Amino acid sequence: MSTDIQAPLAEHHFPCDACGGDLRFDPNGRQLVCDHCGNTQRLDSGPWGKVQIKELDFDAALNKALPAMEMEETRVSKCPNCAAEVEFDPEVHATECPFCATPVVTDTGMHRHIKPRGVLPFALDEATAREAMTHWLGRLWFAPNGLQEYARKGRRMQGIYVPYWTFDADTTSQYTGERGTVYYETRTVMRDGKRQQVQVPKVRWRGVRGRVTRFFDDVLVLASTSLPKRFTDALEPWDLGDMQPYAPEYLAGFRAEGYAVTLKDGFVEARQKMDGIIARDIRFDIGGDRQRIHSVETDMHDVTFKHVLLPVWLAAYKYRGETYRFVVNGRTGKVQGERPWSAVKIAVAVILGLVVAAGIGYVAAISQ
Question: Which residue range(s) make up the domain with 7?
Answer without folding.
Answer: 2-13+54-170+219-283+306-337
